[in-house]
Specification:
single chain; globular; alpha/beta
């Protein structure tokens, strides 16, 4: 279907990759892997013809079609969901007209044995088969089936696309691409905006209906379930492994060990040869051997070792000014889009220094409430931003807002002020944009690199309220860990919108659940929230029990993969011990909070009883007197219990 010959692409002195050769065949399911910036997205753009290589050629077989889903795209807002998806079938009318014309010609001709007639029959058959493959006149049923599979409700079909969040709008584009049924599907991070139910549907679709697939994804379970072939871009070369991703990881480790041994042997050979040359260079009796060794040394081709990304992204938020005690207060906030109510009666208070999570399925209003807090959209109700608040906002589409025509350095230089301009190169180096990388144009950066660059912009000014909307999209595991530690050490308040439970674990102390038009508060960490719903994944909110079970299986696989990656920095045992410590700490904090609420309620009731018993008519009421006595006794016991719980909690903070 697609043949790639001697492909080379370069944006600077050093090529991004070169000498790339491979063939994409029918039923291939290819995972394209490599570190951020290796050239994965660039290769997809070359395959679909959006970008041209410096050298080499990409040949698409005659009659084959290619469909491409980019990480970032400009979406239309002037149509409904159904109308937008119908655009996938814009070629149906033209094809139907051609078929009608050929059918009329066949009915009029009588030269049944001629070569021209047989050729026309063959062409009609091929075009008719293609027409049927595209859905013929029944494409409306295909539209509904695909939209439902991707998580839309029937009531969503006639809603304007502008009413949907970024994640749902990306699903609309994915639906259009899948319905156009290209021969080769090129998917760049397709799972970034999908929940587990939709991911499983997409897995099934790709396995059963797609012809050939090339995808880039950081979702290990997804690429394992879909792909049967893995291609890695590393050291500017592409290596093709005819195995699934998990097997590729093992083969790559073995390959790197072999490379290391070969490299060490080669270095020893080079050192021995140089020593011989230096030792006998000036001895006439050894002149022939010396010249022979010099020629040998010149012919040696250095062995390259596959890259292992050991660079660290150092991220630290600057000290912030002290804000008011309550940075955000919502009282009966409501947001409607036409007749559709996103949420209603939202009442919440976020205290200074709290790290809270907004969770829920896509389209339930997480980003919408963030935009209300930012003052970007109108709403009803009362929403108060506290005293002395300075907001730092990282939006889902932050990377899209960067100017693509300027360099990485200029992007930061344009917004830097004062002495910070003298440290731009140091900051860029800390974010893995050192040296030549700082001169790259933004338009050639990968999704992960753009996200890192957008994060740098956020760091240039001190803020005390940090609002991060899906900050881990396009970030690899090491970058996620560093960002998590930076937020944990942040002095101010943080609101984090995310589906990534591992990122939120140990980071947030309160969870706000969005769903069914309301927002519910849950005290505790993300795992406390998941246990209260008897689920293991944020993506499993609101789905059936059977899907939950599958979700848990997939999550277990993903957790295993994540642990393997984190194992480079700490052992599994220490990780589990830390998780257990965090669990016990949250339990102790929750026990103290529960006890304080009970004490507050009992003290309030005692005050009420005092007022009632001061009234002469009620002074001799034995029921009230008994209640007062029992409440007072219970209060004393609870205060004693609270003291013990506080002492227990103090032991955690001193350890």
């Amino acid at each position: 279907m697609i043949t790639v010959n001697n492909l080379k692409i370069e944006f600077g002195i050093k090529p991004l990759f070169s000498d790339v050769n491979f063939v994409i065949n029918d039923r291939d399911r290819i995972a394209l892997v490599g570190k951020n910036g290796a050239g994965k997205s660039t290769l997809l753009k070359i395959l679909c013809g959006i970008q041209h290589p410096t050298e080499g050629a990409v040949t698409v077989s005659s009659g084959s079609t290619v469909g491409y889903l980019p990480q970032v795209m400009i979406l239309q807002d002037n149509t409904t969901v159904r109308e937008e998806v119908r655009k996938a079938f814009k070629g149906n009318t033209e094809l139907k007209n051609r078929l009608d014309k050929m059918n009329a010609e066949l009915s009029q001709r009588t030269d049944y044995e001629s070569d021209e007639y047989l050729a026309l029959v063959q062409k009609f058959t091929q075009e008719h088969d293609r027409y049927m493959l595209l859905g013929a006149d029944n494409y409306e049923a295909d539209i509904e089936r695909t939209l439902l599979g991707l998580g839309f409700l029937r009531t969503d079909f006639d809603r304007p696309t502008g009413e949907f969040s970024g994640g749902w709008r990306m699903r609309i584009e994915l639906a259009k691409l899948l319905l156009s049924r290209p021969d080769v599907l090129l998917l760049d991070e397709p799972t970034n905006h999908l929940d587990i139910e939709s991911i499983q549907w997409l897995e099934q679709f790709l396995a059963q209906s797609a012809k050939a697939v090339v995808l880039v994804s950081h979702d290990r379970a997804f690429i394992n379930n879909v792909c049967n072939r893995t291609m890695e871009i590393s050291c500017g070369k592409l290596t093709d492994y005819k195995v699934k991703y998990d097997e590729f990881v093992k083969l790559r480790a073995e390959r790197r060990e072999q490379q290391l041994r070969a490299y060490e042997n080669q270095q020893k050979e080079i050192a021995d040869t140089r020593e011989f040359i230096e030792r006998f260079r000036y001895k006439p009796s050894k002149a022939v051997q010396v010249q022979s060794r010099i020629k040998m040394l010149e012919k040696i081709v250095p062995i390259e070792i596959d890259e292992v990304d050991t660079s660290v992204m150092h991220l630290k938020f600057p000290p912030c000014l002290r804000s008011g005690d309550f940075p955000v207060i919502c009282d009966d906030v409501r947001k409607d889009y036409g007749e559709h109510t996103v949420f209603d009666h939202v009442t919440l208070t976020i205290r200074r220094g709290e790290k809270v999570a907004f969770v829920g399925k896509n389209g339930e209003g997480k980003t919408t409430l963030v935009k209300c807090i930012m003052g970007e959209i109108p709403f009803t109700g009362n929403l108060k931003i506290g005293h002395n608040i300075q907001i730092g906002y990282f939006a889902q589409n932050q990377a899209q807002l960067l100017d693509e025509n300027i360099s990485v350095f200029q992007t930061i230089d344009d917004v830097a002020k004062g002495d910070i301009r003298l440290k731009i190169n140091n900051i860029l180096g800390a974010f893995m944009f050192g040296g030549e990388a700082s001169e790259k144009k933004v338009k050639v950066l990968s999704g992960g690199e753009r996200s890192r660059l957008a994060m740098i912009r956020l760091l240039l000014e001190p803020v005390n309220l940090l609002i991060l909307d899906e900050p881990t999209n396009h970030l690899d595991m090491p970058s996620k860990d560093v960002l998590k530690e930076a937020i944990r050490a942040f002095d101010g308040t943080a609101i984090i919108v995310s589906h990534d439970r591992e990122f939120l674990d140990g980071l947030v102390t309160k969870v706000y659940e969005f769903g069914g038009g309301s927002v519910r508060e849950h005290i505790g960490g993300i795992y406390d929230f998941l246990r209260s719903h008897n689920i293991s994944s944020l993506d499993a909110l609101g789905i059936s029990k059977s899907v939950k079970q599958k979700s848990e299986e997939n999550t277990d696989k993903t957790d295993t993969a994540s642990t393997e990656q984190q194992g480079q920095s700490e052992s599994r045992q220490s990780y589990e011990e830390r998780k257990e410590f965090q669990r016990k700490l949250r339990k102790a904090e929750k026990a103290v909070a529960d006890s304080e609420r009970k004490i507050e309620a009992m003290e309030k009731r005692l005050k009420e009883l005092d007022c009632i018993l001061c009234n002469p008519e009620s002074a001799s009421d034995m029921t009230l007197i008994t209640e007062y006595t029992s409440t007072k006794k219970a209060l004393d016991e609870e205060v004693e219990k609270w003291t013990t719980l506080c002492e227990n909690l103090e032991t955690f903070h001193t350890n």
